[in-house]
Amino acid sequence: MLPVNQFVNFIEQNSLFTPATKILAAVSGGIDSVLMVHLLKAAGYDFGIAHCNFQLRGDEALRDQAFSRSLAATLNIPFHTVNFDTEQYAADNKISIQMAARDMRYQWFDTISQQSGYEVIALAHHQNDTIETILLNLTRGTGIAGLHGILPKNGKLVRPLLFLSRAEIQTIVTAEGLTFVEDSSNASAKYARNKIRLEVVPKLKELNPSLEKTFENNLLHFRDLELLLELKLEELRQALLQIHDDGIYLSIIEVKKLNPKRLLLFKLLNEYGFNEATIDDLIDSLDKHSGRVFESGTHTLLIDRNIIILKPRTTVLPVEIIINETDHEANFGVYRVNLLHDDSALIVKDNPMAVSIDADKLVYPLRVRTWNEGDYFFPLGMKGKKKLSDFFINQKVPLHQKEEIPILVNGNGEIMWIGGYRPDERYKVSDNTKKVTIFELFKLT
Protein backbone atom coordinates (compact mmCIF):
# COMPACT_ATOMS: atom_id res chain seq x y z
CA MET A 1 0.00 0.00 0.00
CA LEU A 2 1.32 3.44 -0.89
CA PRO A 3 2.25 5.49 2.24
CA VAL A 4 0.01 8.37 1.19
CA ASN A 5 -0.76 9.56 4.74
CA GLN A 6 2.94 9.69 5.66
CA PHE A 7 3.64 11.50 2.41
CA VAL A 8 0.99 14.16 3.03
CA ASN A 9 1.97 14.54 6.69
CA PHE A 10 5.62 15.13 5.75
CA ILE A 11 4.56 17.72 3.18
CA GLU A 12 2.36 19.54 5.68
CA GLN A 13 4.86 19.36 8.55
CA ASN A 14 7.55 20.94 6.38
CA SER A 15 5.20 23.37 4.60
CA LEU A 16 6.35 22.14 1.19
CA PHE A 17 3.14 23.00 -0.66
CA THR A 18 -0.66 22.90 -0.34
CA PRO A 19 -3.36 21.03 -2.28
CA ALA A 20 -3.85 24.21 -4.33
CA THR A 21 -0.19 24.43 -5.38
CA LYS A 22 0.76 23.67 -8.97
CA ILE A 23 3.78 21.34 -8.88
CA LEU A 24 6.42 20.45 -11.47
CA ALA A 25 7.78 16.95 -10.71
CA ALA A 26 11.30 16.22 -11.96
CA VAL A 27 11.19 12.64 -13.26
CA SER A 28 14.14 10.62 -14.54
CA GLY A 29 12.15 7.39 -14.82
CA GLY A 30 14.12 5.82 -11.96
CA ILE A 31 12.63 4.15 -8.92
CA ASP A 32 12.61 7.26 -6.70
CA SER A 33 10.93 9.69 -9.08
CA VAL A 34 8.41 7.03 -10.17
CA LEU A 35 7.29 6.51 -6.58
CA MET A 36 7.05 10.28 -6.05
CA VAL A 37 4.81 10.62 -9.10
CA HIS A 38 2.48 7.85 -7.93
CA LEU A 39 2.28 9.39 -4.45
CA LEU A 40 1.50 12.84 -5.87
CA LYS A 41 -1.24 11.27 -8.02
CA ALA A 42 -2.70 9.19 -5.17
CA ALA A 43 -2.74 12.24 -2.85
CA GLY A 44 -4.60 14.29 -5.47
CA TYR A 45 -2.04 17.02 -6.06
CA ASP A 46 -1.98 19.16 -9.21
CA PHE A 47 1.28 18.44 -11.00
CA GLY A 48 3.09 17.97 -14.29
CA ILE A 49 6.13 15.86 -15.19
CA ALA A 50 9.45 17.24 -16.48
CA HIS A 51 12.09 14.95 -18.00
CA CYS A 52 15.59 15.92 -19.21
CA ASN A 53 17.49 13.95 -21.85
CA PHE A 54 21.14 14.87 -21.41
CA GLN A 55 22.11 12.77 -24.43
CA LEU A 56 24.94 11.07 -22.55
CA ARG A 57 23.77 7.44 -22.60
CA GLY A 58 22.64 6.91 -26.18
CA ASP A 59 19.68 4.52 -26.58
CA GLU A 60 19.30 4.20 -22.82
CA ALA A 61 18.59 7.94 -22.54
CA LEU A 62 15.98 7.67 -25.30
CA ARG A 63 14.41 4.74 -23.45
CA ASP A 64 14.15 6.78 -20.23
CA GLN A 65 12.57 9.67 -22.12
CA ALA A 66 10.00 7.37 -23.77
CA PHE A 67 9.22 5.72 -20.43
CA SER A 68 8.64 9.06 -18.70
CA ARG A 69 6.39 10.22 -21.53
CA SER A 70 4.39 6.97 -21.28
CA LEU A 71 4.11 7.31 -17.49
CA ALA A 72 2.67 10.81 -17.86
CA ALA A 73 0.20 9.61 -20.49
CA THR A 74 -0.91 6.67 -18.34
CA LEU A 75 -1.56 8.93 -15.37
CA ASN A 76 -3.04 11.66 -17.59
CA ILE A 77 -0.47 14.18 -16.40
CA PRO A 78 1.02 17.09 -18.43
CA PHE A 79 4.46 16.16 -19.79
CA HIS A 80 7.45 18.38 -20.58
CA THR A 81 10.76 17.20 -21.99
CA VAL A 82 13.95 18.63 -23.48
CA ASN A 83 17.13 17.37 -25.14
CA PHE A 84 20.44 18.90 -24.01
CA ASP A 85 23.85 18.88 -25.68
CA THR A 86 25.49 18.44 -22.30
CA GLU A 87 29.01 17.78 -23.52
CA GLN A 88 29.05 20.93 -25.66
CA TYR A 89 27.69 23.06 -22.80
CA ALA A 90 30.36 21.68 -20.45
CA ALA A 91 33.11 22.41 -22.99
CA ASP A 92 31.84 25.93 -23.72
CA ASN A 93 31.62 26.81 -20.02
CA LYS A 94 34.73 24.87 -18.95
CA ILE A 95 32.87 22.90 -16.28
CA SER A 96 32.33 19.21 -15.53
CA ILE A 97 29.63 17.14 -17.22
CA GLN A 98 27.84 16.79 -13.87
CA MET A 99 27.87 20.53 -13.26
CA ALA A 100 26.71 21.22 -16.82
CA ALA A 101 23.79 18.82 -16.43
CA ARG A 102 22.81 20.43 -13.13
CA ASP A 103 22.96 23.97 -14.53
CA MET A 104 20.92 23.20 -17.64
CA ARG A 105 18.40 21.14 -15.68
CA TYR A 106 17.54 23.84 -13.16
CA GLN A 107 17.54 26.62 -15.75
CA TRP A 108 15.03 24.64 -17.80
CA PHE A 109 12.90 23.88 -14.74
CA ASP A 110 12.69 27.61 -14.04
CA THR A 111 11.73 28.32 -17.65
CA ILE A 112 8.97 25.68 -17.70
CA SER A 113 7.69 26.89 -14.32
CA GLN A 114 7.36 30.45 -15.59
CA GLN A 115 5.74 29.39 -18.86
CA SER A 116 3.22 26.97 -17.34
CA GLY A 117 2.60 28.50 -13.91
CA TYR A 118 4.25 25.86 -11.73
CA GLU A 119 4.90 27.19 -8.24
CA VAL A 120 7.31 24.57 -6.88
CA ILE A 121 9.67 21.96 -8.33
CA ALA A 122 9.48 18.54 -6.65
CA LEU A 123 12.67 16.47 -6.54
CA ALA A 124 12.77 12.79 -5.50
CA HIS A 125 15.67 12.87 -3.03
CA HIS A 126 15.40 10.48 -0.08
CA GLN A 127 17.21 9.89 3.22
CA ASN A 128 20.15 8.06 1.67
CA ASP A 129 20.75 10.98 -0.68
CA THR A 130 21.09 13.16 2.40
CA ILE A 131 23.62 10.77 3.96
CA GLU A 132 25.66 10.73 0.76
CA THR A 133 25.55 14.54 0.52
CA ILE A 134 26.80 14.99 4.09
CA LEU A 135 29.63 12.49 3.61
CA LEU A 136 30.57 14.16 0.33
CA ASN A 137 30.56 17.59 1.98
CA LEU A 138 32.74 16.32 4.83
CA THR A 139 35.16 14.82 2.31
CA ARG A 140 35.47 18.07 0.38
CA GLY A 141 35.47 20.32 3.44
CA THR A 142 32.39 22.07 4.78
CA GLY A 143 31.07 24.35 7.44
CA ILE A 144 28.02 23.76 9.58
CA ALA A 145 25.73 24.40 6.60
CA GLY A 146 27.18 21.32 4.92
CA LEU A 147 26.04 19.15 7.80
CA HIS A 148 22.35 19.84 7.46
CA GLY A 149 22.30 17.72 4.31
CA ILE A 150 19.51 18.14 1.78
CA LEU A 151 16.76 20.43 3.07
CA PRO A 152 13.09 19.48 2.53
CA LYS A 153 12.54 22.96 1.09
CA ASN A 154 14.97 25.39 -0.49
CA GLY A 155 13.21 28.22 -2.26
CA LYS A 156 11.07 26.71 -5.03
CA LEU A 157 12.73 23.30 -4.67
CA VAL A 158 10.87 20.77 -2.53
CA ARG A 159 11.74 17.18 -1.63
CA PRO A 160 8.68 15.28 -0.43
CA LEU A 161 10.40 11.84 -0.24
CA LEU A 162 12.92 12.71 2.48
CA PHE A 163 10.90 10.74 5.01
CA LEU A 164 11.85 7.48 3.23
CA SER A 165 15.09 5.52 2.93
CA ARG A 166 16.26 3.84 -0.28
CA ALA A 167 15.40 0.41 1.17
CA GLU A 168 11.89 1.56 2.10
CA ILE A 169 11.34 2.93 -1.41
CA GLN A 170 12.46 -0.38 -2.90
CA THR A 171 10.06 -2.29 -0.66
CA ILE A 172 7.08 -0.06 -1.52
CA VAL A 173 7.73 -0.10 -5.28
CA THR A 174 8.13 -3.88 -5.29
CA ALA A 175 4.95 -4.41 -3.23
CA GLU A 176 2.95 -2.09 -5.51
CA GLY A 177 4.37 -3.62 -8.69
CA LEU A 178 5.39 -0.23 -10.05
CA THR A 179 7.59 -0.21 -13.15
CA PHE A 180 10.65 2.00 -13.54
CA VAL A 181 13.90 2.15 -15.51
CA GLU A 182 17.46 1.72 -14.27
CA ASP A 183 20.23 4.20 -15.07
CA SER A 184 23.30 2.03 -15.77
CA SER A 185 25.62 4.87 -14.70
CA ASN A 186 24.35 4.45 -11.13
CA ALA A 187 26.33 1.22 -10.93
CA SER A 188 29.61 2.95 -11.81
CA ALA A 189 31.93 3.98 -8.97
CA LYS A 190 33.70 6.49 -11.19
CA TYR A 191 31.60 9.36 -9.79
CA ALA A 192 32.30 10.51 -6.20
CA ARG A 193 28.67 10.24 -5.07
CA ASN A 194 28.33 6.73 -6.52
CA LYS A 195 31.55 5.67 -4.79
CA ILE A 196 30.13 6.82 -1.46
CA ARG A 197 26.82 5.06 -2.12
CA LEU A 198 28.32 1.80 -3.39
CA GLU A 199 31.42 1.48 -1.21
CA VAL A 200 31.31 3.74 1.85
CA VAL A 201 27.69 3.59 3.04
CA PRO A 202 27.54 -0.25 3.02
CA LYS A 203 30.58 -0.31 5.35
CA LEU A 204 28.95 2.22 7.67
CA LYS A 205 25.77 0.16 7.73
CA GLU A 206 27.83 -2.81 8.91
CA LEU A 207 28.71 -0.69 11.94
CA ASN A 208 25.19 0.71 12.30
CA PRO A 209 22.34 -1.09 10.49
CA SER A 210 20.04 1.82 11.45
CA LEU A 211 22.28 4.36 9.73
CA GLU A 212 19.41 6.23 8.04
CA LYS A 213 17.52 6.66 11.31
CA THR A 214 20.66 7.81 13.11
CA PHE A 215 21.39 10.40 10.41
CA GLU A 216 17.78 11.57 10.49
CA ASN A 217 18.06 12.27 14.22
CA ASN A 218 21.45 13.93 13.79
CA LEU A 219 20.08 16.15 11.04
CA LEU A 220 17.47 17.55 13.40
CA HIS A 221 20.26 18.51 15.81
CA PHE A 222 22.43 19.97 13.05
CA ARG A 223 19.59 22.09 11.68
CA ASP A 224 18.72 23.36 15.17
CA LEU A 225 22.38 24.25 15.77
CA GLU A 226 22.52 26.06 12.44
CA LEU A 227 19.40 28.05 13.36
CA LEU A 228 20.88 28.88 16.77
CA LEU A 229 24.09 30.05 15.11
CA GLU A 230 22.19 32.26 12.67
CA LEU A 231 20.30 33.89 15.55
CA LYS A 232 23.60 34.56 17.33
CA LEU A 233 25.13 35.96 14.15
CA GLU A 234 22.23 38.33 13.65
CA GLU A 235 22.78 39.66 17.18
CA LEU A 236 26.48 40.12 16.45
CA ARG A 237 25.80 41.90 13.16
CA GLN A 238 23.65 44.42 15.00
CA ALA A 239 26.15 44.90 17.85
CA LEU A 240 29.54 44.51 16.17
CA LEU A 241 29.22 45.87 12.62
CA GLN A 242 29.12 49.67 12.79
CA ILE A 243 28.15 51.36 9.52
CA HIS A 244 30.18 54.46 8.55
CA ASP A 245 30.44 56.46 5.35
CA ASP A 246 33.83 54.97 4.55
CA GLY A 247 33.11 51.36 5.48
CA ILE A 248 32.02 49.00 8.24
CA TYR A 249 33.95 49.19 11.51
CA LEU A 250 34.58 46.28 13.87
CA SER A 251 36.04 47.03 17.30
CA ILE A 252 39.14 44.88 17.84
CA ILE A 253 38.39 44.77 21.57
CA GLU A 254 34.96 43.30 20.84
CA VAL A 255 36.33 40.92 18.20
CA LYS A 256 38.76 39.53 20.77
CA LYS A 257 35.81 38.79 23.07
CA LEU A 258 34.13 36.53 20.50
CA ASN A 259 33.90 32.91 21.59
CA PRO A 260 34.40 30.76 19.61
CA LYS A 261 36.29 33.54 17.83
CA ARG A 262 37.31 31.73 14.64
CA LEU A 263 33.84 30.34 13.86
CA LEU A 264 31.90 33.54 14.59
CA LEU A 265 34.34 35.82 12.77
CA PHE A 266 34.36 33.52 9.75
CA LYS A 267 30.56 33.41 9.60
CA LEU A 268 30.39 37.20 9.91
CA LEU A 269 32.94 37.85 7.16
CA ASN A 270 32.39 34.91 4.83
CA GLU A 271 29.54 36.72 3.07
CA TYR A 272 32.13 39.33 2.02
CA GLY A 273 34.27 36.64 0.38
CA PHE A 274 36.82 35.96 3.15
CA ASN A 275 37.82 32.32 3.65
CA GLU A 276 38.95 30.51 6.78
CA ALA A 277 42.66 30.87 5.99
CA THR A 278 42.28 34.67 5.81
CA ILE A 279 40.35 34.70 9.09
CA ASP A 280 43.20 32.76 10.73
CA ASP A 281 45.70 35.37 9.47
CA LEU A 282 43.43 38.19 10.63
CA ILE A 283 43.17 36.77 14.15
CA ASP A 284 46.95 36.31 14.32
CA SER A 285 47.39 39.99 13.34
CA LEU A 286 45.04 41.54 15.90
CA ASP A 287 47.82 42.26 18.43
CA LYS A 288 50.36 43.38 15.85
CA HIS A 289 51.00 46.72 14.17
CA SER A 290 48.29 48.57 12.31
CA GLY A 291 48.19 48.64 8.56
CA ARG A 292 47.77 44.97 7.71
CA VAL A 293 45.39 44.60 4.77
CA PHE A 294 43.44 41.48 3.76
CA GLU A 295 41.60 41.17 0.47
CA SER A 296 38.83 39.00 -0.94
CA GLY A 297 37.50 39.16 -4.46
CA THR A 298 35.09 41.94 -3.49
CA HIS A 299 36.25 43.52 -0.22
CA THR A 300 39.24 44.58 1.85
CA LEU A 301 39.86 44.34 5.59
CA LEU A 302 42.23 46.84 7.18
CA ILE A 303 43.55 46.73 10.74
CA ASP A 304 43.66 50.39 11.76
CA ARG A 305 44.82 50.83 15.35
CA ASN A 306 41.87 49.66 17.48
CA ILE A 307 39.40 48.87 14.70
CA ILE A 308 39.04 46.62 11.68
CA ILE A 309 37.65 48.42 8.65
CA LEU A 310 35.67 46.46 6.07
CA LYS A 311 35.01 48.12 2.73
CA PRO A 312 34.35 47.20 -0.90
CA ARG A 313 37.39 47.00 -3.14
CA THR A 314 37.73 50.15 -5.23
CA THR A 315 39.68 51.08 -8.30
CA VAL A 316 43.33 51.68 -7.47
CA LEU A 317 44.27 55.38 -7.48
CA PRO A 318 46.67 56.50 -10.18
CA VAL A 319 50.25 56.91 -9.03
CA GLU A 320 50.09 60.54 -10.10
CA ILE A 321 48.53 62.97 -12.55
CA ILE A 322 50.12 65.96 -14.27
CA ILE A 323 48.62 69.46 -14.18
CA ASN A 324 49.76 72.02 -16.75
CA GLU A 325 49.32 75.80 -16.49
CA THR A 326 46.57 75.79 -19.11
CA ASP A 327 44.51 73.11 -17.32
CA HIS A 328 41.32 74.06 -15.52
CA GLU A 329 40.47 70.69 -14.02
CA ALA A 330 41.84 67.16 -13.64
CA ASN A 331 40.59 63.93 -12.12
CA PHE A 332 42.50 62.02 -9.46
CA GLY A 333 40.85 58.83 -8.22
CA VAL A 334 37.58 59.77 -6.54
CA TYR A 335 38.40 63.51 -6.73
CA ARG A 336 38.17 66.25 -9.32
CA VAL A 337 40.72 69.05 -8.96
CA ASN A 338 39.54 72.47 -10.19
CA LEU A 339 41.99 75.32 -10.87
CA LEU A 340 41.11 79.01 -10.81
CA HIS A 341 43.70 81.68 -11.70
CA ASP A 342 42.92 85.01 -10.00
CA ASP A 343 44.76 88.31 -10.47
CA SER A 344 44.47 89.16 -6.79
CA ALA A 345 45.74 87.95 -3.43
CA LEU A 346 42.46 86.20 -2.64
CA ILE A 347 42.70 83.89 0.38
CA VAL A 348 40.34 80.91 0.76
CA LYS A 349 39.20 80.56 4.35
CA ASP A 350 37.20 77.92 6.27
CA ASN A 351 37.23 75.44 3.41
CA PRO A 352 39.70 72.57 3.86
CA MET A 353 38.83 71.34 0.35
CA ALA A 354 40.29 74.49 -1.26
CA VAL A 355 43.56 76.40 -1.03
CA SER A 356 45.02 79.66 -2.37
CA ILE A 357 48.65 79.43 -3.47
CA ASP A 358 50.97 82.23 -4.54
CA ALA A 359 50.89 81.78 -8.32
CA ASP A 360 54.39 83.20 -8.85
CA LYS A 361 55.86 80.30 -6.86
CA LEU A 362 54.32 77.61 -9.05
CA VAL A 363 56.65 75.61 -11.27
CA TYR A 364 54.73 73.77 -13.97
CA PRO A 365 53.94 71.03 -14.60
CA LEU A 366 52.48 70.29 -11.17
CA ARG A 367 51.67 66.82 -9.91
CA VAL A 368 48.92 65.32 -7.77
CA ARG A 369 49.81 61.98 -6.20
CA THR A 370 49.35 59.79 -3.16
CA TRP A 371 51.76 60.12 -0.26
CA ASN A 372 55.07 58.26 -0.10
CA GLU A 373 57.01 57.07 2.91
CA GLY A 374 59.49 59.81 3.80
CA ASP A 375 57.35 62.68 2.43
CA TYR A 376 57.46 65.90 4.46
CA PHE A 377 56.14 69.44 4.26
CA PHE A 378 56.09 72.67 6.29
CA PRO A 379 52.55 72.83 7.77
CA LEU A 380 50.93 76.27 7.57
CA GLY A 381 51.54 78.17 10.79
CA MET A 382 54.61 76.13 11.75
CA LYS A 383 58.29 76.92 11.29
CA GLY A 384 59.65 73.41 11.03
CA LYS A 385 58.99 70.56 8.66
CA LYS A 386 56.91 67.52 9.48
CA LYS A 387 56.75 64.03 8.02
CA LEU A 388 53.40 63.24 6.42
CA SER A 389 53.27 59.96 8.33
CA ASP A 390 53.47 61.87 11.64
CA PHE A 391 51.01 64.49 10.42
CA PHE A 392 48.46 61.79 9.57
CA ILE A 393 48.89 60.23 13.00
CA ASN A 394 48.38 63.59 14.73
CA GLN A 395 45.29 64.25 12.61
CA LYS A 396 44.03 60.72 13.43
CA VAL A 397 43.58 59.99 9.74
CA PRO A 398 42.45 56.35 9.28
CA LEU A 399 45.05 54.27 7.48
CA HIS A 400 42.78 53.42 4.57
CA GLN A 401 41.86 57.09 4.06
CA LYS A 402 45.40 58.44 3.94
CA GLU A 403 46.03 56.28 0.87
CA GLU A 404 43.35 58.30 -0.97
CA ILE A 405 44.39 61.84 0.04
CA PRO A 406 45.56 63.96 -2.95
CA ILE A 407 49.01 65.48 -2.42
CA LEU A 408 49.67 68.59 -4.54
CA VAL A 409 53.34 68.77 -5.52
CA ASN A 410 55.13 71.67 -7.19
CA GLY A 411 57.32 71.16 -10.23
CA ASN A 412 60.40 71.54 -7.98
CA GLY A 413 59.30 68.51 -5.94
CA GLU A 414 58.03 70.41 -2.90
CA ILE A 415 54.67 69.50 -1.39
CA MET A 416 52.31 72.48 -1.44
CA TRP A 417 49.07 71.06 -0.06
CA ILE A 418 47.76 68.01 1.74
CA GLY A 419 44.37 67.98 0.01
CA GLY A 420 41.53 68.48 2.45
CA TYR A 421 43.87 69.02 5.42
CA ARG A 422 46.70 71.58 5.39
CA PRO A 423 48.63 73.79 2.93
CA ASP A 424 52.39 74.33 3.11
CA GLU A 425 53.73 77.43 4.89
CA ARG A 426 56.11 78.18 1.98
CA TYR A 427 53.29 78.66 -0.52
CA LYS A 428 50.85 80.73 1.51
CA VAL A 429 49.45 84.02 0.27
CA SER A 430 51.49 86.89 1.72
CA ASP A 431 51.67 90.70 1.50
CA ASN A 432 53.95 90.29 -1.51
CA THR A 433 51.52 88.04 -3.40
CA LYS A 434 50.24 89.62 -6.61
CA LYS A 435 48.03 86.79 -7.91
CA VAL A 436 46.91 83.38 -6.74
CA THR A 437 45.89 80.05 -8.13
CA ILE A 438 43.05 78.42 -6.24
CA PHE A 439 42.91 74.64 -6.13
CA GLU A 440 39.62 73.05 -5.07
CA LEU A 441 38.75 69.38 -4.54
CA PHE A 442 35.36 67.83 -5.30
CA LYS A 443 34.62 64.22 -4.40
CA LEU A 444 33.11 62.41 -7.35
CA THR A 445 31.38 59.65 -5.34
Provide a concise account of the structure shown.
The protein has 445 residues and is α+β, with helices and mostly antiparallel strands. The chain contains 14 helices and 22 strands. The strands form five sheets. Strands 3-2-1-4-6-5 form a six-stranded mixed sheet, sandwiched between helices.
Per-chain topology:
Blueprint: H1 4-13, E1 22-26, H2 31-42, E2 46-53, H3 59-75, E3 79-83, H4 86-93, H5 97-116, E4 120-122, H6 127-140, E5 153-154, E6 157-158, H7 166-176, H8 192-207, H9 211-240, E7 242-244, E8 247-251, H10 252-257, H11 261-269, H12 276-285, E9 293-295, E10 299-304, E11 307-312, E12 320-323, E13 329-332, E14 335-342, E15 354-358, E16 366-369, E17 376-377, E18 386-387, H13 388-394, H14 399-402, E19 407-409, E20 415-418, E21 422-423, E22 436-443
Parallel strand pairs: 1-2, 1-4, 2-3, 4-6
Antiparallel strand pairs: 5-6, 7-8, 8-11, 9-10, 10-11, 12-16, 13-14, 14-22, 15-22, 16-19, 17-18, 19-20, 20-21
Task: Characterise this structure.
With 445 residues, the protein is of the alpha+beta class. The protein is 39% helix and 21% strand. It is built from 14 helices and 22 strands. A hairpin with a 2-residue loop joins strand 7 and strand 8 (247-251). Helix 4 (86-93) packs across helix 5 (97-116) and helix 11 (261-269) packs across helix 12. The mean pLDDT is 89.
Low-confidence residue ranges: none
Mean pLDDT metric: 89
* Beta-strand proportion: 15-25%
**Which word captures the global form?**
elongated
The largest sheet has its strands arranged as 3-2-1-4-6-5
Residues in helix, %: 25-40%
Rg (C-alpha, Å)? 33 Å
Report the major sheet.
Answer: 6 strands, mixed
- Can you count the beta strands? 22
What structural class is derived from the secondary structure elements?
alpha+beta
* N- and C-termini, Cα separation: 68 Å
Q: Helical segment tally?
A: 14
